[in-house]
Each structure stands twice: as structure tokens, then as C-alpha cells.
Amino acid sequence: MFESTFTWNDLQFILQGAWVTILLTVVSMIIGTLAGVVCGMARALLPRSTIPLAWLLDVFRSVPLLIQFVLFNALKSIVGLNWSAFAVACVVLGLYVTAYCTEIVRSGVLSVPLTLRRASRSLGLTYWQDLRQIVMPMATRVAFPGWINLLLGVMKDTALVMWIGIVELLRASQTIVTRIQEPLLVLCIAGLIYYVMSLVVARLGARLETRWQEND
Amino acid sequence: MIEIDNVHKSFGELEVIKGVSLQVKKGEVVSIIGGSGSGKSTLLMCINGLESIKSGSIRVDGTEVHARGTDINKLRQKIGIVFQQWNAFPHLTVLENVMLAPRTVLGKSKAEAEALAVKQLTHVGLGDKLKVFPGKLSGGQQQRMAIARALAMSPDYMLFDEATSALDPQLVGEVLDTMRMLAEDGMTMILVTHEIRFARDVSDRVAFFRNGLVHEIGTPDQVIGNPQRPETADFLRSIN
Ligand SMILES: Nc1ncnc2c1ncn2[C@@H]1O[C@H](COP(=O)(O)OP(=O)(O)O)[C@@H](O)[C@H]1O
Ligand SMILES: [Mg+2]
């Protein structure tokens, strides 16, 4: 009764999809984290003058990702950009991560007590030395759990790129389901792969966190 | 020498320092006492430029603290300040806390900064806590670390803002002893404190602050022992 038409080739196809999921996650997290650190620090340190930035990023946080993908893809054709679907996916996901990461970084920076910054400035550290040596390391510890959650969320949200024609883990699985008509088996395999990927991230994150917590 | 001349300072509409003048000579220990909200902390912040002033002037060794051209980071190197909150940098070990400024600000080598930090930490009795993170220390130890951290910059002046107010009573003594040691070494100090007996012991002069003004100033025996103004006497009675 456990006979299945699921083949080695199918598994490879799914794993290729998983690789696309990983790539999309990594690239968009890199883009979004770099931009998010800059925007988040700016939001925390210059709250007044960066209010328009907050409005803009709110758009990317509030509009469902699916709509962003489809709209950006349409925009691409209208403007005549010759971008691959993968590039579009990275840009949209990157902006999405930027929007969330900005908030994570902002609250991390704001969590550093003003009295600590005064103490470091009173030792003669310049504004930038204080940011670099005190604010950023402390903010990182506060922001890190939120950043890991963002990463785990984005890994799952990448599934939406199938709507602009990219074959990632979920899409690959669906293709095989359609062909061999064994949805339970295939989706279990796909789910297991998501689970393993998340587990690795969560474990690495937890290890880093405990190392930091030992100090408190 | 620290020369404070007719300084005014406001937060928005609220004027908290209303024309304070005070001179502290090299080697002198001046204590500032006074009720909460009288502007004592604000004055200390103004002395090293952590707060701006509205008018008047503050000079440290002849340098205008609040003048445009002043390199404030450079000036702060010679003014150590210890706050009521211990302000340990929690992500750095005790040793790293003390090494940070000598390395970053003075550009000392790692070995040099470490030797300096070990010396200062040993001096305040923390020679056995070098690799520990501040979170593992008692409040008194953290405050002594903060003192060592300030001293590692070899400051010419030390300002203390109620350095013992946030400590459990049994830990106050060890921090006061450290401060006393500094005074005996000839450090120029301004102490904002509620420890009247300590202030009387170590100070050359005591200033009583009230409503953003120096209300009475003189030797400890005058101001604490025999206050001339009724408000000073009231304040001293209120905290005993
Ligand atoms: N950053 C600030 N913004 C607005 N008001 C402040 C600020 N810091 C202090 N104050 C006000 O200034 C007055 C003097 O405060 P402070 O210098 O801390 O007094 P003290 O140290 O003598 O208790 C208080 O009324 C306080 O509320
Ligand atoms: Mg105060």
C-alpha cells in the first residue's frame, strides 16, 4: 500500500525549488537588512526628518505581499524594464524586509538607555564612536530575535513568488502533486523541508542568543 | 581650574539654572548639596558639555566649554564623570569597559590600554573581576568600575553625580572609600552628594543649591556645621 510514483527525479525537482527559496530568502534578507539598518538608525536618530520615510515604508508593510509582486511585475512591463522574475522577486521582497527591518532596528536603537550614551560621550567618544561601540552592539542584541522571526517569516512568504512565475519549493511541490496525484506525500515532504530549514535558522539564532544572555 | 560664571540654563520654558558662579581650583574638592530638582545634575552636565547653556560661561583650564570652536570630545577627556546610574556597558567585560575609551579615544594599543585598565581596576579593588560581565557585579562594584573607567582616561577633574544614591546602604561605604582615596590623591573633584558626613570630611568647600542658584557656599564647617541661611539649615535638618 506504500507504493508511490514519487521518484528520485521528483525529489531533486523539489530540492531545486528549495534552493530557489533559500536564494530568495538570503538575497532579500541581505538587501533588506542593509537598507533596514540604515533606515532604522535614521528613524531612531532623526525621528522628525524621517517621518516621510516611515510613511513610505508603511506602504510596504501594509499592502499584502502578493499584491506588491503582481503590481511591481506589471509596472516592470509598463516601464519596459527587462528584469528577470527573480530580480523582481528580490526587489519586492527586499523592500518588504527593509520595511520590517527598519522597525526592528529602530526599536533596538531606542532601547539603548540615553544615560549609557551620555556615559560613553562623557568619556570622550564622538557621536559616531558611541554609535559604533555602544549603540549598535547593544541594539543588535535587542533586535536579533525580531530579525530571526523576520527571516523565518520571509522564508515562507517567498512562496508567493510563484505568482510571478518562479518555481520555488512550494510551486515545485504543487507541480509534482498535479502530476502524480499524491498531495499528502508531496506536501509532507515540502513541509518537512521548510521545517528543517527553519529549524536550522532557529537553532543558530538561539545559540547566539544564549551566548549573549550568559553575560547578563 | 573650572570657572563657572553666571550660567543660565533652561529646558524649554523652565529655567533650572539661574545665574550660577563657582570656581574650583586645581586639587580642590567641592561638594554640592541641595534638594532634588535644584539643578545640581544639570550643572555637572553643562560642565562637560553634555548639556548646552543659555548664557554665561564655563571655562575648563581656560577653554570655553560651550564656544563654537571647542573640541568638546577632547575637553571631555580631562573631565571624568560618574553618574547615579552605574552605566556599565553591558555587552563588554569589566576589563573591556575600562579599555574602551583609552583605545577608541586615545588610540592606545591593546596592550597599553589593558595595562592601564588592569591598574585602575586593581586600584578600585576589582582586580579579580576583569573577565566578568558587569551584569554579574553588585551595584557597588559596578559603580567602582565606572570610577575606574573614568580614571583610565587620566582626567584632571572628576565629577560625581550622586554616585551612591542608587546603591543599597551596605554598598555605599565601598564607593565612598574609593572617592575618598581619590580626594586624598589630590584629584580635583566636584561631588553632588546627599552623604553630608562624607561631604564634610573630604570637601574643601560645600555649596548649597536651591532653585538653580548657589544659595550658600563656604567651608564644610561653615555651611554644614553652622549654616548662615535658614533654608540651608532646613535642608540639612530634612535629610538627617
Ligand atoms: N532633559 C530634561 N528636560 C527637561 N527638564 C529637565 C531635564 N533634565 C532635568 N530637567 C529638569 O530640570 C530641573 C533640575 O534637574 P536636575 O538638574 O536633575 O536637579 P537635581 O540634580 O538637583 O535633582 C528639574 O526640574 C528637572 O525636572
Ligand atoms: Mg540629580
Tags for this entry?
heterodimer; A: 216 residues; mainly alpha; MetI-like fold; 8 helices; 81% helix; flat; B: 240 residues; alpha/beta; Rossmann fold; 6-stranded mixed sheet; 4-stranded antiparallel sheet; 9 helices; 10 strands; 37% helix; binds adenosine-5'-diphosphate; binds magnesium ion; transmembrane (chain A); membrane (chain A); transport (chain A)
- The CATH architecture of chain A comes to Orthogonal Bundle
Query: Total helix count of chain B?
Result: 9
Number of strands of chain B: 10
Number of helices of chain A: 8
Q: CATH first level of chain B: which class?
A: Alpha Beta
Give the tally of structural domains of chain B: 1
Series of H and E elements of chain A: HHHHHHHH
Structural class of chain A: mainly alpha
Helix content of chain B: 25-40%
CATH superfamily label of chain B: P-loop containing nucleotide triphosphate hydrolases
The main sheet of chain B comes to: 6 strands, mixed
How far from one another are the termini of chain A? 56 Å
The share of residues in extended strands of chain B comes to 25-35%
Average pLDDT across residues of chain A?
A: 92
Ends apart, CA distance between termini of chain B: 33 Å
CATH topology of chain B: Rossmann fold
Which blocks of ≥5 consecutive residues of chain A have pLDDT under 50?
Answer: none
What's the pLDDT, averaged over the residues of chain B? 95
Amount of helix of chain A: over 70%
Order of helices and strands of chain B: EEEHEEHEHHHEHEHEEHH
Per CATH, the superfamily of chain A is MetI-like
Describe this protein's structure:
The complex is a heterodimer of chains A (216) and B (240). With 216 residues, chain A is an all-alpha fold. Helices cover 81% and strands 0% of the residues of chain A. Chain A contains 8 helices and no strands. The mean pLDDT of chain A is 92. Chain B has one domain (2-239): Rossmann fold, CATH 3.40.50. Helices cover 37% and strands 25% of the residues of chain B. Chain B has helices at 40-47, 72-76, 94-104, 110-123, 139-151, 169-184, 196-202, 220-225, 230-238, and strands spanning 2-11, 14-24, 29-34, 55-60, 63-64, 79-82, 157-161, 188-192, 205-210, 213-218. In chain B, a hairpin with a 2-residue loop joins strand 1 (2-11) and strand 2 (14-24). In chain B, helix 3 packs across helix 4 (110-123), helix 3 runs parallel beside helix 5 (139-151) and helix 4 packs across helix 5. Chain B starts with a strand and ends with a helix. The relative contact order of chain B is 0.17. Chain A binds chain B through residues 113, 115-116, 118-126, 129, 133-134, 137-138, 141, 212, 214-216, and chain B through 45, 48, 50, 73-74, 76-77, 79-81, 83, 85, 87, 89-91, 100-101, 104-105, 133, 135, 146, 149-150, 153. The complex binds adenosine-5'-diphosphate and magnesium ion (MG). Residues 11, 16, 34, 36-42 of chain B line the site of adenosine-5'-diphosphate.
